[in-house]
């Protein structure tokens, strides 16, 4: 019988072992990555194209192009696509991002034969119907109008524009008129230029038998998109950070203010990156962080405050975010400054650091508990061109980092004078 008076044994994490992927270079230039697990009779397929905001020629082009692919093909209407997916109890959707656009299918393994042709039809034969484009553009404009009434949307948009400069693809969200000038021909041109098999990474994970793996390789090899010779090269956008370190989006009728504070951080390949993840966790990465204890628990200014390190393929963004009553806006910013200064001035107590280490290691193990989560980690290694031992290095960084190292990093990277601050709402 289980003795509930005794705590379970704990074990040190020495290394992380992820499922290995079988990689096949297909005849059409695409790469197929297969990660097998028989735990559940389900499969996930990710088709990842270099077709994110980084590559677009106008605001909203990559976003609406991804959505238009699900609005019908030369063989199926949007309704037929949706009904087929629903009939098999599956899920199929597009996800437009800063660097890539992904199309993801979740289904029972036994239904892949019926659903794979539909997926490939969507990717290869979009019809770009004019009527659907007009409705999609209208919905996008209406949704943008609603989003731009929210303080947190405006604050993040303003903040990232201050960090990267006008027109940069890593700006969050859109200006009010972003979709107004978009034409259907813009989307069609973007599709033919960036939805190419030579740049395609396909990740398959789940219950995949040998016959299923062969089916995937054969069918995806027959996917023929634009040849590589017609890919339009993209110049790296110039970063033009705002000179002013403070920006305010006036919302005179709002009772709340959304606050964003942050700056660019080293890339995911930088030698400081993994250690900075520990520093961020301690500052505002979890519920027991310093920002939460001070600004939420002690001062009662907010329900929640967090800090994040958000890597992209060409840069990394660090930011602190919270929503507060407008009367304590300035007080909140001052408390953020104090927490940043404290990390620079004083070494972190050993007990506090050990708590953060235990939390990060436990959360990491929990985050790779399923085959889909492990595939996500593997996918990051591939797309960001990371070393295979990246996650073991992450575990090592957590276990070995010292208070003096964190203080040195705080002095180098967490000086408030180097950061951008953006507010949406009104000041105290």
Task: Summarize this structure briefly.
The chain is α+β, with helices and mostly antiparallel strands and about 425 residues long. The chain is about 40% helix and about 20% strand.
Write the layout of secondary structure elements.
Elements: E1 22-25, E2 31-36, E3 42-49, H1 61-68, H2 78-87, E4 91-96, E5 101-108, H3 112-124, H4 130-147, H5 151-164, H6 184-194, E6 201-206, H7 210-221, E7 246-250, E8 256-265, H8 273-285, H9 290-298, E9 305-311, E10 316-325, H10 329-345, H11 350-367, H12 371-383, H13 390-400, H14 403-413, E11 420-425
Parallel strand pairs: 2-6, 7-11
Antiparallel strand pairs: 1-2, 3-5, 3-6, 4-5, 8-10, 8-11, 9-10
Helix pairs in contact: 1-6, 3-7, 8-14, 9-10, 10-14
Give an account of the 3D structure.
- The chain has about 425 residues and is α+β, with helices and mostly antiparallel strands.
- It folds into 2 domains: about 20-230, Cytochrome Bc1 Complex, Chain A, domain 1, CATH 3.30.830.10; about 245-425, Metalloenzyme, LuxS/M16 peptidase-like (Cytochrome Bc1 Complex, Chain A, domain 1, 2-Layer Sandwich), CATH 3.30.830.
- The protein has 14 helices and 11 strands.
- The strands form 2 sheets. The protein has a 6-stranded mixed beta sheet with strand order 1-2-6-3-5-4, with helices on both faces. A 5-stranded mixed beta sheet has the order 7-11-8-10-9, with helices on both faces.
- β1 and β2 (about 30-35) form a beta hairpin.
- α3 packs parallel to α7.
- The longest helix has 18 residues, at about 130-145.
- The mean pLDDT is about 95.
């Amino acid at each position: 019988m289980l003795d509930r008076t005794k705590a379970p044994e704990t074990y040190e994490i020495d290394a992380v072992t992820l499922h290995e992927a079988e990689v096949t270079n297909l005849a059409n230039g695409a790469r197929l990555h297969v990660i097998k697990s028989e735990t559940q009779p389900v499969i996930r397929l990710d088709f990842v194209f270099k077709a994110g905001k980084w590559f677009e020629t106008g605001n909203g082009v990559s976003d609406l192009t991804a959505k238009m692919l699900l609005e019908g093909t030369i063989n199926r209407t949007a309704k037929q696509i949706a009904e087929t997916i629903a009939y098999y109890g599956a899920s199929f959707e597009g996800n437009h991002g800063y660097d890539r656009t992904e199309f993801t299918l979740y289904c029972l393994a036994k239904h892949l034969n019926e659903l794979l042709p539909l997926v490939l039809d969507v990717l290869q034969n979009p019809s770009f119907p004019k009527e659907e484009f007009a409705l999609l553009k209208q919905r996008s404009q209406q949704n943008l109008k609603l989003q731009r009434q929210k303080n947190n949307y405006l604050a993040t948009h303003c903040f990232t524009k201050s960090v990267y400069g006008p027109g940069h693809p890593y700006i969050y969200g859109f200006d009010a008129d972003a979709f107004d000038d978009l034409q259907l021909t813009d989307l069609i041109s973007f599709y033919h230029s960036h939805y190419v098999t030579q740049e395609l990474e396909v990740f398959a994970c789940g219950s995949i038998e040998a016959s299923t793996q062969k089916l995937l390789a054969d069918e995806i090899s027959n996917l023929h998109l634009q040849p590589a010779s017609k890919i339009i090269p993209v110049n790296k956008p110039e970063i033009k950070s705002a000179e002013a370190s403070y920006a305010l989006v006036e919302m005179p009728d709002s009772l709340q203010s959304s606050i964003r504070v942050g700056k660019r951080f080293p890339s995911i390949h930088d030698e400081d990156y993994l250690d900075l993840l520990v520093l961020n966790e301690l500052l505002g990465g979890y519920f027991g962080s310093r920002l939460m204890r001070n600004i939420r628990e002690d001062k009662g200014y907010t329900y929640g405050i967090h800090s994040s390190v958000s890597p992209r393929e060409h840069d990394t963004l660090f930011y602190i975010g919270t929503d507060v009553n407008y009367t304590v806006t300035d007080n909140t910013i001052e408390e953020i400054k104090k927490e940043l200064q404290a990390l620079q001035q004083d070494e972190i107590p050993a007990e506090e650091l050990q708590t953060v280490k235990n939390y990060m290691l436990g959360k990491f193990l929990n985050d790779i508990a399923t085959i889909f989560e492990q595939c996500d980690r593997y996918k990051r290694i591939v797309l960001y061109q990371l070393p295979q031992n990246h996650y073991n290095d992450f575990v090592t960084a957590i276990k070995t980092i010292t208070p003096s190292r964190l203080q040195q990093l705080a002095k180098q990277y967490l000086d408030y004078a180097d950061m951008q601050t953006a507010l949406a709402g009104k000041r105290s």
